[in-house]
């Protein structure tokens, strides 16, 4: 009987003490590897059960601490992103303001003699008979006309005229812009898709200013899309904001120039095809309406410009 009692005692000791210790050792290793989802069974003698309960409480405290750390990291990342966005907006505002002052001064200095030059050329043209000399004057007038348009763009950028915002149906304005460009044959070799799945709420912005932005973005999409490509205009509503997106199937935007897209006088077009004020003006118009413009693009995969505007305030 003595041997049987010893065997039985060893069995009980193994079940009540040795097994929990082995489990504790195994779980401790898993916890050390970062797995905090383990729990020790609370069983056996009171001392062993108390240790298991204390260990489980420690694991729960570690889980709670880990979650708090994750929440803090996410909050810090969000704050960091907001600070970066605010910094970028401040840099853009300062840059546009400084360039605006320069543009205003240059436009006035160039505009006066340019206006006189155009006047003299028109007078000379009226006094010439048809021939080579008159053709040269017409060429000169055409080129000075280009300079005059650039000067006017600079003035509009530097000192935009005061406009009164209106309550608009944004879909109606978008369709007007599409119809206007379609009638001019702008999308003749392209496919223009319009997708407004639902009636959208009204926004507050000057009608011709919003149309100017949409036409500018649609023309840029046309320039970026090869013949046979597709341009898609879509819109929707999220919470208290309306969005309009213009996507193209072009070659995309080089990551190196992405951050300069809205810089004044920055352009990737050939000389004579653009002065680099279009997107800067679009940015200013939307910013003045308490909105924003987002750009996404991948090289070789097309680009999208998304306009965000707040809903009309009651």
Beta percentage is 5-15%
Work out the helicity level. Answer: 55-70%
The main sheet comes to: 5 strands, mixed
Average pLDDT score: 77
Give the low-pLDDT segments.
1-13
What's the arrangement of strands in the largest beta sheet?
A: 2-4-5-7-6
Order of H and E elements:
HHHEHEEHEEHHEE
Number of helices: 7
- The geometry reads as elongated
Alpha carbon gap, first and last residue: 93 Å
The Cα radius of gyration reads: 35 Å
- Number of DSSP-assigned strands: 7
Q: Give the class from helix and strand content and strand pairing.
A: alpha+beta
What does this entry look like structurally?
Helices cover 60% and strands 13% of the residues. The protein has 314 residues and is an alpha+beta fold. The strands form two sheets. Strands 2-4-5-7-6 form a five-stranded mixed sheet, with helices on one face. A two-stranded antiparallel sheet has the order 1-3. A hairpin with a 5-residue loop joins strand 6 and strand 7 (303-310). Residues 1-13 have low confidence and may be disordered.
